[in-house]
Amino acid sequence: MTDYRAPAPDSLRPTRRFVSPLDIAITASATDTVVTVSGEIDLGVSDDLRRALDDELRFEPSALIADLSAVTFCDSSGFTVLVQIRAKAEEAGVPFILVTQERALLRPMSLLGLDAVFNVHPTLDSARDVLTR
Questions:
Q1: Residues 74-104: pLDDT tens digits?
Q2: Helix (H, G, I), strand (E, B), or coil: what is residue 41?
């Protein structure tokens, strides 16, 4: 059945807010530090991601792993943060690895040529396997 009623006037529509929450958890061990990120990475939260990764890099971990498996979106500000952290990690001699299988991240990375820049693994275990070789 088709509804032919006119849409509600703008003044009657509820106000909607689009929020981009980002959850960050950090697990440090003798072999690596894993920064697990979930949510959407955009301009509103990319500084939070930068601070978290910068802070962990200051501790000079054996390896820094950004687990982005639960990230559903990443805009250019997020990729900029990751590129900058990669450069800082390389300068400090700390391996920097990304973990994700999310098409929402892999596709833009590929289109931007970042798949050649980042060390990306599908799982945390595979990332850690590379570190032990």
A1: 999 999 999 999 999 999 999 999 999 999 9
A2: strand
Instruction: State the pTM of this model.
Output: 0.83
Compute how many other C-beta atoms are within 10 angstroms of the C-beta atom of residue 11. 5
- How open is the CA angle 100-104-106, to the nearest 5 degrees? 55
Banded model confidence at residue 21, pLDDT cuts 50, 70, 90: confident
Contact 78, 42 (CB under 8 A): yes
Query: 97: closest CA among 38, 33, 12?
Result: 33
Q: At what angle do helices 46-58 and 76-92 cross, to 10 degrees?
A: 10
**What does the angle CA 53 – CA 58 – CA 59 come to, to the nearest 5 degrees?**
105
* CB-based burial label for 69 (10 Å; 0-12, 13-18, 19+): middle
